Inverse folding.
């Protein structure tokens, strides 16, 4: 238990630092690399939450595919790599106010509702077989909808990005 | 472990993502902030799945969110590329054609 709490603290601190750097850094490639730190930390948190399959999928899809997409997007939308001043717009004060208000509200509600409730330690394990069983039985309708969305997204991305 | 550790971590990541969406001007960085938001939602889903003694629905919908996020990034980056090709810039605050 103590070891899990220590691991949680270290990973959470890394994720928060990385997330702050993603939204404040002046260099897009650095932002992408900090985002890798946040996504990897999220995968570690999923393992702490006993969700191995989701953690593996997170690593494969996010760090493997989405980050490559981001780096391609960065490469194709700028002539030079490196820092650039013009990444933020003029609403920094508004952003800070909104984020702090939101954090205050969410934090107050969560602490008020869940104070020191513990996660169960003897919960039955959710195996990959359980997940696939429910994807293809109970939740098969969202699965079909998701397949159609993915097909539409692929076709849409090709139509948008082709050069004519 | 307390459930609030995970929920508060998700809340903090969500707020940082919202800040990024509001403040960033570069289209690619706005998409990265949206990824932060989606990840905080996933942490919440899995924390509640464990709280309800290993409910499989949380895991399934976390996977669906990952798939939706991949589709969203694909289309989003295609749009950003198109904007860049037409305007030589991806500063989102210069896009005012749809303003009435």
């Amino acid at each position: 238990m103590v070891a899990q709490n220590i691991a949680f603290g270290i990973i959470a601190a890394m994720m928060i630092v990385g997330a702050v750097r993603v939204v404040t850094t002046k260099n897009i490639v650095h932002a992408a690399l900090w985002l890798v730190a946040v996504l990897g930390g999220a995968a570690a948190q999923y393992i702490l939450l006993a969700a191995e399959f989701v953690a593996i999928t997170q690593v494969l899809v996010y760090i493997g595919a989405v980050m490559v997409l981001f780096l391609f997007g960065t490469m194709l939308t700028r002539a030079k790599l490196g820092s650039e001043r013009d990444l933020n717009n003029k609403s920094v004060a508004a952003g800070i106010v909104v984020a702090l208000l939101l954090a205050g509200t969410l934090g107050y509600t969560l602490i008020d509702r869940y104070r020191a409730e513990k996660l169960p330690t003897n919960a039955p394990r959710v195996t990959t077989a359980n997940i696939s069983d429910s994807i293809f039985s109970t939740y098969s309708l969202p699965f079909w909808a998701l397949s159609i969305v993915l097909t539409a997204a692929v076709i849409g991305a090709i139509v948008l990005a082709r050069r004519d | 472990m307390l459930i609030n550790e995970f929920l508060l971590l998700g809340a903090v990541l969500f707020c940082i993502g919202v800040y990024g969406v509001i403040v960033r001007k570069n289209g690619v960085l706005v998409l990265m902030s949206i990824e932060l938001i989606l990840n905080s939602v996933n942490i919440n889903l899995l924390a509640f799945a464990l709280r309800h003694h290993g409910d499989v629905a949380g895991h399934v919908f976390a996977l669906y969110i990952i798939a939706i996020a991949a589709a969203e990034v694909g289309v989003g980056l295609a749009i950003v590329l198109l904007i860049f090709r037409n305007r030589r810039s991806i500063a989102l605050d210069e896009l005012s054609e749809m303003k009435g």
